[in-house]
Amino acid sequence: MNQDTRMNASDEDSGKAQEIRNDGLLLAEPEVQTKRPPWFKVVLLNDDYTPMDFVVFLIKDIFHRNHEEAVSIMLDIHKKGAGVCGVFTRDVAETKAELVITLSRRNEYPLQCRVEKA
After folding, report:
1. Where are the beta strands (DSSP E) in 26-100?
2. Which end of the chain is more exposed for a tag (fewer CB within 10 A), N or C?
3. Which of 16, 18, 15 is nearest to 7 (CA)?
4. Taking the mean position of all CA atoms in its chain, how far away is CA 57?
5. In 10 A of CB 96, how many CB atoms?
6. Is 59 in a helix, a strand, or coil?
7. Can you give the pLDDT at residue 10?
8. DSSP state, 31?
9. Under a CB-based contact definition with an 8 Å cutoff, are residues 40 and 89 in contact?
10. For residue 71, how far is the Cα from the chain centroid?
């Protein structure tokens, strides 16, 4: 062991090895604090052409809601002009929004969907 670097047995045991330099300063690893990712909500928008049954199908299929929840969300969309289908991390929210748009276009419906910060 060289003189520049010394470790105490207790440091090795605890898994927190610290380095002591020649000038007597103790160098410790900085603690990294991670933040939780921000949440985003997926919002479906009302239109005059997409059937209510299709909207219920999408909510059940993509957002894994039961029938009662899907109908309730669909009625919010119909009455209020928009409805929140779920809250997710950004990647998941964007993927689900893309699925809504893709399935709607394949079935020739103009249903719109947006992702908003929760």
Report:
1. 26-27, 39-45, 82-89
2. N
3. 18
4. 23
5. 21
6. helix
7. 47
8. P
9. yes
10. 24
Structure token pair of residue 4: 């520049």
Q: Which residue has the higher pLDDT, 107 or 30?
A: 107
Say if residues 88 and 19 touch (Cβ distance below 8 Å). Answer: no
Tokens of 21: 């330099």
- Cα–Cα separations (whole angstroms), residue 55 to 5, 15, 82, 112, 114: 66, 54, 12, 11, 15
Query: What whole-number distance in Å separates Cα of residue 117 and Cα of residue 32?
Result: 25
Separation CA 6–CA 116 (nearest Å):
52
Residue pLDDT, tens place only, 8-50: 444 444 444 556 666 767 677 778 889 999 999 999 999 999 9
In the β-sheet with 39-45, what is the strand arrangement from edge to edge? 82-89, 39-45, 112-117
CA distance 117 to 103: 23
